[in-house]
Amino acid sequence: MFQSKLKTIILASSITIMAISLISFPQESVDASIRGLDMWWEIVFPSLLPFFIVSELLIGFGVVKFIGVLLEPLMRPLFKVPGVGGFVWAMGMASGFPAGAKLTARMRQEEQLTRIEAERLVSFTNCSNPLFIFGAVSVGFFYNAKLGILLALAHYLGNFTVGLIMRFYGKDEDNNSTQNSKFSVRAAFSALHRTRIKEERPIGKLLGDAVMSSIQTLLMIGGFIILFSVINKLLYHLNIISFLGNGVEFILQSLHLPVVLSIPFISGLFEITLGSQLTSQVQESTLMQQAIITSFILAFSGFSVQAQVASILAQTDIRFKPFFVARIMHGIFASIFAFLLWEPVYERFSNTEPSNAIPVALLGDGSWFSKNLSLLSDLGPIITICALSAYILIYSNRTFIKKDIQ
């Protein structure tokens, strides 16, 4: 009873302080809101929407079931999750946060995963996509495309390590993970056909549902991005980030890292983009030290992304706590890998001619990643407007049909 009342007091006090802060810092709050809206409007919405829609269609047509049967012999021994986890993992890496959580929740709703399997899967299928790591962080913030190779390797190796560790999670509750299937294309095609036959919705209805579901999720994501952009700005002006940074300084000193990285580190715990940008601007630290902190920030994914994931998981019985613990582990492992791979990976590429070290498409301001990021920023608003217009038309049409039926 006492804990419940204490929680009520803390929540009410926090919201009250936030409301007072919004009134006290109106211009800063508006600027932060616009920054979050620009990020969602230009980058997040247009980059995630195609993946979300295609994922829904692949699930509806049975392709995911086909992939699941094929990957069962690989995913079970490694991670103790069904083969469909391979599809979720691949889509999570390709499209970035929080696609892994959305697809895991969908697989759970389809009863293709048990709760324990879903909690294992969501813990290592949420990660930054290569376009963000190379384009936004490496080229956009550090002006160093070669650093993207180190950050990407550390990030995905850390993710893989978390997956291997989480296979031991929930052993007492799990009754389904001991079976192993043999690789069979025939069985995969049979599963694909059965799933398609069970899908009674026509193609038009299936496509409409995919668009509706995807845009609703992206609207929720946009709200969280704007909210945490404002919260992060208010915490900075209230000197709360500086206060928390004093506690982090002791940890950084024990790890032989400069204390000036404490503020970027705290900011990154709330929002990965701002944290990565501030880390890149610290002149009193070496590039290796900046890479270690950035690797942790990318892996931890920030409370903003975690709030998005929590909202998605709340639609199922998947618990959030394993995901949160996995994010801490991922941050630690990614930082360790960034340190261990610095000399054999980054220094090797830095001391080699670019044409012989990595593809030219990854280098400089004219790189493939920077060009795609710039193109996405230019076309993103147009894609967002068209998609939202389609959403309004579909939603209005369905509302009128329901009224006519009634």
From TrEMBL:
Instruction: Name the InterPro entries for this protein.
Output: Gate_dom, Spore_IM_YlbJ
Keyword terms, alphabetized: Membrane, Transmembrane, Transmembrane helix
According to its UniProt record, what is one Pfam family this protein matches? Gate
Transmembrane helix listed as a keyword: yes
Q: Where are the transmembrane segments?
A: 6-26, 47-71, 83-101, 121-143, 149-169, 206-228, 259-279, 291-312, 324-342, 373-394
Q: Which residues form the Nucleoside transporter/FeoB GTPase Gate domain?
A: 44-133, 218-314
Keyword Iron (UniProt): no
Protein name, UniProt field: Sporulation integral membrane protein YlbJ
Source organism (scientific name): Robertmurraya mangrovi
